[in-house]
Amino acid sequence: MKETIIIAGFGGQGVLSMGKILAYSGVMQDFEVTWMPSYGPEMRGGTANVTVIISDKRISSPIANEYDTAIVLNQQSLDKFESQVKAGGVLIYDTNGIINPPTRSDIEIYAVDAAAECARLGQAKLFNTMILGGYLKLKPIVSMENVMLGLKKSLPERAWYLLPQNKEAILRGGEIIRRVR
Amino acid sequence: MADSDVRLMKGNEVIAHAAVRCGCDGYFGYPITPQSEVMETLMELRPWETTGMVVLQAESEVSSINMVYGGAATGKKIMTSSSSPGVSLMSEGLSYLAACELPCLVVNCQRGGPGLGTIQPSQGDYFQACKGGGHGDYHMIVLAPASVQEMYDFVSLAFDLAFKHRNPTMILADGAIGQMMEKVVLSEQQPRLTDEEIAERYGDWATCGKGKRKKYNICTSLFMNSEDLEEVNLRLQAKYRRIEAEEARWEAIMCDDADYVVVAYGSSARISSAVVELAREQGIKVGILRPITLYPFPVKPIADLAARGVKGFLVAELNAGQMVEDVRLAVDGKTPVEHYGRMGGMLFTPEELLQVLKDKLIK
Question: Which of B3, B29, B198, B213 is most buried, by the most CB atoms less than 10 A from its CB?
Fold first, then answer.
């Protein structure tokens, strides 16, 4: 098993944290993982992306040309990474703010309207775990138990009280993800 | 479930954890991207409350390397870290440390240059690390980690080598290894040496108090008498020959039956190792020779491969061609040696590298 994922969006959307939670969940499940950010001057509104690889074997290159899954959270990221999904791969996006939706017919395309759902709940901070929940519904490569351990390990102790609502968000993401084409 | 001491961390973060856990006495540094997490993590760990390790932000890299100089002279385990432009500022101090034969650890998490360059990863400081940087005939021992676990393990190894040979040691990483997160297993906490232990082990050279000895120890690099300075240089050179004979380290992956060998270190070795998989799927026998010590350079395994009849070497580096010179010296004209590099913070991909290998060596 080897899953190569790119997660991309605006700085502040929780792109890097989502990748870290996923990678830590992989560690908890005894997989090999790499988490490789495109780092830069950190600012809200700038672009951010991270490549996460989860494998049952030693991982050679932590960077990739093409991905099994792309999770794209803004138009720029969709434009950039849609073409880099492997044929037969998966693209997940949030329709919020997307003017030109994805067009490829040789990949599976899914939408998670997490921004709208989080706005409805009044809980903007749950956005990234809700998206993650959508992804894990499609590709349950790590168990829910290990996702929660990964989440706990990713958060400082002072934020552990947020674990239950993040679990809810992950489950909600799994419910609202829908196949677009 | 994985053992609880297995963590997911950045290369830079594990440098800090490794320093505390191997019993380091002091860290003096100045922040610079992409290695600022080293000091940030140390400040978060607050080791001065547990092991007693000192962590201090100096006013500049010039100041931090001179704090290292002072600390190392007393026989303590002292380190600093920086990135390319900051290491340039430290170069004078490194020459002094080498001249005085003082053990210390310097971590360079390289970024693109020359000049202020970029904060993205690069391997443009190979010459600076291995061939000098500072003035005079000196060498640092240079280790090149290719994973987060190696970033962790090499801190302790670097100190061991530094004290074994009384020589500054550098961990030459880059922004990619420093910023990447991977699984890492943390070792047990080692105690710091007591002042008595330091006096016993290093009392013959360290300025840790005269005690009952007859002579004061003096750390200096100033020798106004040429005969004396030549003698110092001869002693240093003899030490470097010893280091070259004893300490070369490398990893050979699938080299036994390889027709072509990629030579790469650090982050480029990680990317290159995917080339082996890709090439062998296409029936091309490629291996990787990964230098783990850049100084001393692993000359013998490369010379052996050339003598065995490897059809060509491709040296893959994130620079314009630096380590390739050492590979050419080792190969000594026996077989073609080509170079491929990206600069300015750009990385190559495994597919790109395989195409270069085909174009330049197989044709």
Answer: B29
